[in-house]
Amino acid sequence: MSHNRIREKISPAKVASGPKQKAKICSTKKQISKMIDIAIPKGSLQNQTLQLFEQAGLEVKRTEREYNARIDDPRIGKVKILRPQEIPTYVAKGYFDLGISGTDWVMESGAVVAKVCELNYGKMGPGKVKLVVAVPESQAIRSASQIRPGSRVSTEYPNLTRSFFQKLGIPVEIQFSFGATEAKVPELTDVIVDLTETGSTLRKNGLKIIDVMLESTSELIANKKSWADPEKREDILAVETLLSAVLRAKGKILLKMNVPEAKIGDLIAILPSMKNPTISKLYNSGYYAVETVVDRMQVNLLVPQLKKAGAEDILEMAISKIVP
Fold first, then answer.
1. The pTM is what?
2. In a 3-state reduction of DSSP, which class is residue 296?
3. Over residues 289-311, mean pLDDT
């Protein structure tokens, strides 16, 4: 009898049969279904993206299968590492709620997605890259409008390139490139359309830039339906807040110092800040405690000036996030 009673108490059918249990299970399913799935770029953007997520407290943990990953956050479900060329299309089709790709690939794919924000980093760090038209340095061409009709144009961006030359009214032969586009001139192609940060690789291969088609940076993009869903939109914005807070803090530092009351006015006059510096009176003394956020690039010149203006006990501290 006792064994039967015990089995009856722990029977899964019995446990799930009550209305409260059913409601709880339905609630759990609803919560799981609302988790957001994220596509992270591999390749040139991968290292910067993984570092950004880790600094935001959203560490991407890789599994044995290289393209599958996870983020230990209750708002985030599936995480995959994919080529940035494919991410806009997958996000647009609803395979993922959120993704990171470049402006170039969003435009090249023609994917209809919601742009959440610009993350403004590339392979080498902060900043933008350019999609350019380049030809051999030996040619007298100075702009894309001077390219001869029928020229061979090699590129990884056939759709953007086709549209660009159609607007110029110049018929060209577009050749799709799988990479190393700059190495194909002049034997295999006459003109290239390629992405560059500094232009140094093009110059090393004897090429010159004659036009800029667009500027590109990393973008946080969302599926349109997910962006319209209030619950998912809230989670998407939460992720954006964390990522943007890290980017906002890059290049900033926190300065703290003590300042004699008699010199506080002179010091504040030369002290930069995000809005206004924080000032508080030190207990039982003739000093004020002052703190402010400044650009890291300013510090080497600023600290001696602060010292000269009367600041003492100056501390320089790193900032991990800035949330406005």
1. 0.83
2. helix
3. 96
